[in-house]
Amino acid sequence: MKSLTRETKLTIIYILAAFAFSVAMRMIWAYQFADYEAFKYAGQFMINTNDGYYYAEGARDILSGISQENDLSPITSAASQLTAFFAYILPFSFESILLFMPVFLSSLVVVPIILIARGLDNLEMGFIAALLASIAWSYYNRTMIGYYDTDMLNIVLPMFLLWSIIWAVKTNEDKYLLLTALDILVYRWWYPQSYSLEFSFFTLILLYTLVFDRKNLYNYKLLAIMMLAMINLDGFIRFPLVLAAFYIFKQEKYQKYIYHILALSVLVFFATGGFDPILGKLKLYVFKDATLIGEEGLKLHFYSVMQTIREAGQIPFETFANRISGHVVTFILSIVGFVYLAYRHKIMLFALPLIGLGFLASVGGLRFTIYAVPILAFGVAFLITELTRYITDKKSVKYFAYATLTLAVLYPNYKHIEEYRVPTVFNADEVKILTDLSKIADREDYVISWWDYGYPIRYYSDVKTLVDGGKHEGNHNFPVSFVLSNPQNVAAKMARLDVEFTEKAFQIQKANQELNESKRTVLFSNTEEMTKKYGLNDTNDFLLSLQTADIHMPEKTRDIYFYLPYRMLDIYPTVTIFSNLNLMDGKKGQAPFFYVSRNFKEVNESINLGSGISLNKNEKTLTIGAQKVGVKRFVQTYYDKNMQLQKNVQSLNSTAPLSVIYMSPYNTFLVVDEQTYNSSYIQMMALEEYDRSLFEKVIMNPHAKVYKLKI
Q: Does domain 443-566 bear CATH number 3.40.1380.40?
């Protein structure tokens, strides 16, 4: 057996060292919260990303073999399948698998980084780049311990793709044709939205071929096999096509057909709608205006959820730079270094799609910055190795310089990790509420809450939800927002209608599929269908009709529960946005007055609530800026020794526009207008006031209140 070369041994050592470093940095969070039991469930830390519960639900159902119809459990998703596989073969608890998967899978990014550097004969650059890329702000934030989501491989896989492309063009070896195609197949399996990046790599190789290497038949083989791997067909179809193409490409007698295969693959790509997902993603993240639903029918207008998601919003330059490189200075040096690297090694220009996608963060939101992290890490690492090379040839001095400069660029990222103490999605008490609910509710029942909590509710309570982290378009959010921000009599009717019409939509979709029609049914909203069902052409008339007692309700097919957490106070204004508009013309209504204060202090006879708002205790008036406003009522809530909520209500000024609620157990003040005060969320969560003809109490806990709908 041939012994390993010195370069190969050094490559392995660098990979193992960088991998261990990445894992160790991700364990800091676990060390910091080791004794904090509120973050633990079933003896293990819980995850700290909402979306993770989506894939956890799928993995749980795969392992149990139980998944009821229309529960939206992602049993076919790659993340769920890989998780279930690990849980099946590894001797660890399911909760431990969820917690540690991002630690180890995301750290694999160091492998392609170092392998790319090896191809450029600069292993030290690769090692430095791997250290920085593995813990840079945005990459760490989205792959830290407990951040169980597809991001744990979303950079690893395209970096392996970049490595195979670079080595394919550099060596023209047949094995890299197959590796590149397999990279694409695995990447698409893991992350179906990978179209844009794959197509960008393809386009760049095509340009390179046409401009610099037109006569090289190998490049056309590479383009053809990439396109076959990219077409918009099932992976079980693309995989044999790739294998067949690879076999043909290795046969000398078939070389004259290479151009024909490439042309055919391009035609099939566009014929199968391969470019459509790219346009869809651009529309989703770059164009974020209010959404118009349907080309026919009522043409209702809904509020786009992308307008409320921080990760999809524009970010300041300093934040942008810090998330990519850890510091503005490091970021600038990384840009300069990459330009110099690309000048010295033009093959690194193939990395431009990753930089371009990362820079899309300037308009598309901070989530995209992770794509630029490993490439710009190459930039600053190249500067370090080049600068050191010019300074000295003495090894001891050279490695001391490497270490010093590397620590300098790593330090801001380490400080960020040390200070980035994010909480788990729910605490242990909140999870207990949901697990208790799982013993009460059936799997076919619905739990109504805001979409932020949809996945955890489904995971812990094993029920259905109307909205979640993936189903939160404006047409879906409108009814739930309407329920939470309107009085109970109206909210109850809308809740029943939305659940029953959601189930009806599932039946329509199933019928269409059985008739061999397109799996994509015409996009419509439950609200529009409700309006038509009651013989109306104006949704405003339908919403008004919900206030009448004689409106005919659909037959009850399942139970509905309201999950109203205290933590929703922080996002209540956002919740109301989705239903506070005229669906017929898209005009927004006047925002309800809602203010939360937890950092207040008493100053003489007043309580300063912050933001220019103060409460005069003697006069029972509010000062908002320069304006003095009367208080309609002052409510104080507290828990007695039996943990039953009690309240004192003082009626002060019947004509005043605002009310003040002091939730003493939470040390929280609320200043709300009458519309907000009468909303189902405030009445049922903050005050535990509920219409006994419509609801019954199920779980009353300081963290959340659960009610069961009777109608």
A: yes
